[in-house]
Amino acid sequence: MNTSDILIYQNQDGNIKIDVRLDEETVWLTQAQLCELFQKSKATVSEHIKNVFEEGELKESSVVREFRTTAADGKNYATNHYNLDVVISVGYRVKSQQGTQFRIWATQRLKEYIVKGFALNDDRFKSGSSMNYFNELQGRIREIRLSEKFFYQKIKEIYTTSIDYDPTNEKTIAFFKIVQNKLLWAISQQTAAELVYRRADAQLPLMGMLSYDKKQAASIKKAEVSITKNYLGEDEMKLLGLLVEQYLAFAEPWHSKRLQCI
Known about the structure:
The protein has about 260 residues and is mainly alpha-helical. Helices cover about 55% and strands about 10% of the residues. The strands form 2 sheets. The chain has a 3-stranded antiparallel beta sheet. It has a two-stranded antiparallel sheet with strand order 1-2. A hairpin with a 5-residue loop joins strand 4 (about 65-70) and strand 5 (about 75-85). It is elongated.
């Protein structure tokens, strides 16, 4: 059985912080540990847990596990352990100084997520204790950067500082197409038009598209059939993501220098 430590504290800047030591990417706390965490009695924590299940906030079978633990008398007993979902639910219900600190922290993270679209624990990533999650984060960022709208918005931001920049000019439009074709040619030896022409197939499901959100397969629109990226395979998408990342990493510093000169 694996347990994890959860620490609620206030840093030197006065900000509420929460540190969770994950063991095998999970956390399980006993009722006694929940009582210690939120500084409340067993009866109070027990009542909150009961209400969480009765109100249908969480499904008991999914968040409770029974593990054997060694008691003070040296004997092993089967004891219920509660996962992080229960910790969060109880934290929003319990009335104590620790509970208040928990809610301040959670509300800050929720607000950050709603406003920015993300919330990160910088210290944990810097410590190297979340490498699996960091790799996942990098992959998700690459996927976002591959978005047609995001990529070309970034290109526009980079080049709008040019004195002669005109978004409606034919040369500007041609430039964007050239950038796209060079990236696609690098991974497939085909231009955007050639890829769509050669891979679109009305005999195949979804016209032969390979890269799209599987959750939205039933609502794919007609316009998506003409998007080249949707016909790339998994390996091609990964390579394109790396190329886009390198291209933007190369171009963005020039954009910053240009802004400093204006």
